[in-house]
Structure formats: C-alpha cells, structure tokens
C-alpha cells in the first residue's frame, strides 16, 4: 500500500511539472508580436530615406521586422483617399503604434487613432501648427516624434554667397502641403527682413510644375525650393526648366541637390527617421507619448552638386567645398 501511494505521489509530481512546462511553452510560443504601421505619403528620395531610418531605429532597440515586430509599410502614392483607407487598416489590425511620414500621412493616422493608438511623427514640419499636438515640449495626447525644420536663414545666406548677383528670388511651394507652405512663407519673411526681393509661386500638384517653373524662370534670378513633398517629387522637372534659363535652384534637402539642386545645408533625412524609430521603440516599451517632447533637428550638413555648378557656370567658394568635404556630401 505504501509503495502504491509513493508511486502515485511521484506520478502526480511528474505530471504537474510536465503540465507546467507545457503551459510555459505554450505561453512563450503564443507571445504576440506587435504590429507597427508605417504610412508614407508618396515616393521620393527624402521620404524613402526617412522610412529606411525608421526601420533602422526600431532595429537598434531590438524590434526586427519579421522576428520581434511586424512592420506593415503602406505608401499612399500621393492619394488622399489612400491615406484614410490605409490608416483605418492599421486600426483594424490592432497596430501597437503607427508612424506618419509627411504631414498628411500623420494627420490621417491621428484621425484614425482617435487619441488612442500612439502615433509617431517622422520629420514633420510644424507639428503644432498643423494641429497634431499642443506643443513640442508637451504633445498632450497619443502623438510625439521628430521635426526636421529647415535652417532657413542659413539657406538664404548660402544662396547669397553662391549667387551674389541674384536680385530676385523665386520661392515655390505646393498649396496642399502644410509643411511646404510653412517653410516657403517663413523663408519669404526672412528675405523681407534681410531686404531681399522675392516672388512666391505655387503648384497644386506635380502636374503644374512645368508651366509654373517656366513662368518663374522668366522673372527671377535664383530659385529656393523648400522642404515640400510636391516640389521634391517634381524636382527634375523644375531643374530641367531652370537649367535652360541658367538659373540655380537652392533646395532645402540633400536628396533634392542630388536631383539637380546646386547646394544646401540639409538635415539628414535618414538620421531623422532613425531618431523617430528609436523613439517609437521606447514607446513600444511603455514610455508615454503625452509628455514625451518632440525632438527637433535643425542643424544641416553642407551638400553640393559639382556637375550642376559646371552646367550653370558657378564656382563654389573654397570655404564651401572645404565644409562639404569635411562635414558634408559632394555629388559629382
């Protein structure tokens, strides 16, 4: 009898341990991998660089796509209706967090999230002015992230250094791009303060660029192209027109220099995205968005295009070339 009871106790003990192991194994194997939805307004080099940076920033903190996180990347290709549909898709699949690349994308995500799911801003110009947050220091709800405001005064100084003979500057932006309009009008105010003549030109979409650029090229001596998604997407069209008129384009972003701009002091778009990804990782780990300040990057690196300078007959000052060599980028 004693032997039977002992055997029963051993059997129950083994069964208990095995059951515990099975439960633990089951718990581990069914642990939910969070979904991160990334919504990009459209394809162009600057936004693509931000996207790559976001993925790299998440990876830096252990969130690897397909292993420890599921990244659902959606590109609206400039279609506003796509932004709404894709944002709702993220909500339907219970995304743990979403990332908006370009202001319209962030606004669509904020609307779909309805102050619930965290939304990260990836390099958004003027996030409070676009109604996304209360203030940079205290976003106030479920939204935080990064802002890459252009060093506009430095852009004007660079333009005047490279094209000292320019009497009138053309400034072009997209009417539907809040960030582009914000940058263009702020640049215009700086021109006015500095006593520089300027003319503002607008496009409704990229289809307008050819005609507007031709009109602008006939009336100005140099062009400033701000951080603006529509202008960035139509950069090659803009440059094809201005090159014929021998007018330089000083853009706001390094990728726009690569596409035919003369030079700029550019905030690194990839690093901007990477910083956003790192912040997103911390939110996934539990950091609250409401009092997580917006991180703003304004310091740019010198980026020049030697081929474009040769086409326009412009010689870069030695100080500009030295800065580009030591701290920036040179496109040949």
Automatic annotation (TrEMBL):
Xref: Pfam families: ABC_sub_bind
InterPro entries with a match to the protein in the record: ABC_SBP_TrpX-like (IPR047776), ABC_transpt-TYRBP-like (IPR007487), Peripla_BP_I (IPR028082)
Domain of life the protein comes from: Bacteria
Protein name, UniProt field: ABC transporter substrate-binding protein
Native species: Lactiplantibacillus paraplantarum
Highest classification ranks of the organism: Bacteria, Bacillati, Bacillota, Bacilli, Lactobacillales
């Amino acid at each position: 009898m004693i032997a039977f009871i002992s055997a029963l106790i051993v059997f129950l003990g083994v069964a208990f341990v095995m059951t515990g192991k099975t439960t633990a194994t089951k718990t581990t194997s069914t642990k939910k991998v969070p979904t991160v939805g990334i919504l990009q307004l459209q394809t162009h080099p600057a936004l693509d660089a931000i996207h790559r940076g976001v993925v790299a920033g998440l990876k830096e903190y252990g969130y690897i796509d397909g292993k420890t996180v599921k990244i659902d990347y959606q590109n609206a290709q400039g279609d506003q209706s796509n932004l709404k549909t894709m944002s709702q898709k993220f909500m339907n699949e219970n995304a743990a967090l979403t990332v908006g690349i370009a202001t319209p994308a962030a606004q669509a995500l904020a609307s779909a999230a309805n102050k619930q799911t965290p939304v990260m801003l990836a390099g958004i110009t003027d996030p409070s002015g676009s109604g996304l947050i209360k203030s940079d220091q205290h976003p106030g709800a479920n939204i935080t992230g990064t802002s890459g405001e252009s060093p506009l005064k430095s852009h004007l100084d660079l333009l005047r250094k490279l094209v000292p003979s320019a009497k009138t500057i053309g400034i072009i932006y997209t009417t539907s791009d809040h960030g582009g309009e914000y940058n263009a009008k702020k640049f215009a105010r700086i021109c006015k303060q500095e006593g520089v003549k300027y003319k503002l030109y607008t496009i409704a979409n990229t289809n307008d660029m050819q005609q507007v650029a031709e009109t602008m090229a006939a009336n100005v001596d140099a062009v400033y192209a701000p951080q603006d998604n529509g202008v960035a997407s139509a950069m090659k069209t803009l440059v094809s027109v201005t090159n014929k008129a021998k007018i330089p384009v000083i853009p706001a972003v390094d990728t726009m220099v690569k596409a035919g701009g003369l030079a700029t002091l550019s905030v690194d778009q990839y690093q901007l995205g990477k910083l956003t990804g790192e912040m997103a990782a911390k939110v996934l780990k539990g950091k609250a968005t409401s009092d997580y300040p917006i991180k703003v990057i304004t310091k740019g690196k010198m980026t020049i295009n030697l081929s474009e300078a040769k086409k326009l007959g412009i010689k870069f000052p030695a100080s500009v070339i030295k800065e580009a060599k030591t701290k920036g980028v040179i496109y040949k």
